[in-house]
Write the structure tokens for this entry.
Amino acid sequence: MNYLDTLLFGYYPYICLAVFFLGSLIRFDRDQYTWKSDSSQLLRAGQLRLGNNLFHAGVLFLFFGHFFGMLTPHAVYEHFIGAGAKQLMAMVSGGVAGALAFVGLSILLHRRLTDDRIRATSKPSDILISVLLWLQLALGLATIPFSAQHMDGSMMIKLAEWGQRIVTFRSGAAELLVDAGWVFRLHMFLGMTIFLIFPFTRLVHVWSGFASISYVLRPYQLVRSRRIGVGEGQSPASARGNR
């Protein structure tokens, strides 16, 4: 292991996470009017609907799959499913979800780059993040043949252990990736870079998407009539009849 490995997979993750959280907080505090994903639906709705649905369905599955797959210790699930079976399940489900997201984003990217009106309303950051996500999805799909060479799940466990050591601030994380293939390392580096630029792009609307879950758990809204003589549990019509 050399200094570059330590820098990219030992220190760089913490730089990305620090910018990710602090940058998102500062942007929400200072620039709430930019906390949104600008819509171009009025310019070309049909292609947007297809690409948007495919992309979000695939990428949400990939996000939660990576989140729980990498951060769940092997000891938690080894009594229910073996490492090899878990890797096969991840390859199949992740491959399907990745293909959906890749096709959807390809449609969205083609729409944004080829339509003059949409291109004119697009910010450089919009195009940048779309291209980076497209490359990330392509790299993710490219890892499947490499994963097929380690069907015992050994590489998957190493990658998961790396993620767990990073979030728990344990040492030796970078050492786990010394034997990882270049496609895995590049996929992980680009993924961390997306977290790094997250607060400066339209991706901040993802926070609002997760926050909207609280809307489902909100208490019931109590509506009280301001009309005189309307008691609790009595409709305005019955109140007028009693006058």
In short: The radius of gyration is 24 Å. The mean pLDDT is 86. The CA atoms of residues 232 and 241 lie 16 Å apart. The first helix runs from residue 3 to 30.
